[in-house]
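Exercise 4. Each item below gives a protein and its sequence. For each, produce the structure-token representation.

Item: 3-dehydroquinate synthase (Thermodesulfovibrio aggregans).
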Amino acid sequence: MEKLRVELGERSYEVLIDRGNIPLIGERLLRFSIGKKVALISNPKIFELYGEKVTSSLKKEGFDPYVVLIPDGELYKDYFWAYHIITRLLESGFDRKSCLIALGGGVIGDITGFVASIYMRGIPYIQIPTTLLAQVDSSVGGKTAVNHPLGKNMIGSFWQPSLVWIDVDTLDTLPEREFISGLAEVIKYGIIWDNEFFELLDKNKEKILRKEKEILIQIIKRACEIKAEVVSKDERESSLRAILNYGHTIGHAIETLTGYSSYLHGEAISIGMVYEAKLSSILGFLDRESLERIKNILKNFGLPINLPLNMDFSAMIKTILLDKKNIEGKLRMVFPEAIGKMKINFEISEEDLKKVLNE
Ligand SMILES: NC(=O)c1ccc[n+]([C@@H]2O[C@H](COP(=O)([O-])OP(=O)(O)OC[C@H]3O[C@@H](n4cnc5c(N)ncnc54)[C@H](O)[C@@H]3O)[C@@H](O)[C@H]2O)c1
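Answer:
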């Protein structure tokens, strides 16, 4: 089992990565001072695949699992379904010692974390992420949220999990497209933090795409280590943590303007990373060779690197200017000045943005 720690003082926790470890979750939970009542939050698809393994492991160790399922999809990561979970917990007598377990991708992880953060002013929760994106990104770092009709992730909190329990075998059932999409976030860590990791990904492309477990464990661990280090230094995103948003300013605009239906998150982020790297190159920071390396690695892993042909650039600029990361109407972005080194909070003019989108 591979292990790392997210260092956040009394809110520190471990991320454990292995294969076939889902049935051991009950035993692990015995180490925590939590009550016997545990709620497993999931969706019908994931519960069907892994729910029984989790609940029987919990029962075996004397826990009393209670299952709450919400429909599958981003559409249900909202206040209504958070309220539904809370109602079910109240009806079933969950108290401040009770613990929640998120079994699923980022949608389940985000809504479960959000409910845990507000239920009786905050109860513990555990992440069992089952998508690559959730394993390398959303399960670590304590950002929780639900969507509002006026914006994605607009209602949320910082609430750290007590444990992140990763079983890479769950990736066997993940649709290929979701897996590739998750790889965009993995590659992001190389670009923002670690050139050696970037090279390791490049060299091991075949093994990764074949989902060989040894390399998967290695890259998930390194991705989580980088995220853990960044989050430990800047939990609430006052500066450094913003580097994790690389690719997301343009990526979110693509997702918004295509109605969240044409691109998976990682696919939109892949395009966003390319255009934000181009921006850095136009501004004279990133050299051409590094820009080509970024484009090539994403393309070679099967990720999109070009904006959709019919993209309305003025709508895109408007959307980017509305991004919640902007401060007082000024557009601020992070982008690489070299592979492994980022520029943070750089003020961008509308002209530069127009230039890069027209490239
Ligand atoms: N909190 C954060 O820091 C953070 C970071 C990045 C993204 N997010 C959020 O994460 C969400 C996206 O997460 P996602 O990409 O994991 O999507 P998701 O949770 O919607 O999962 C994608 C699909 O895969 C299915 N699935 C999950 N695991 C599976 C498995 N092992 N086998 C078969 N099918 C499986 C799901 O049911 C779903 O249909 C977004 O809501 C985004 O806002 C949060």
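Check: The domain at 2-173 is CATH 3.40.50.1970 (Rossmann fold).
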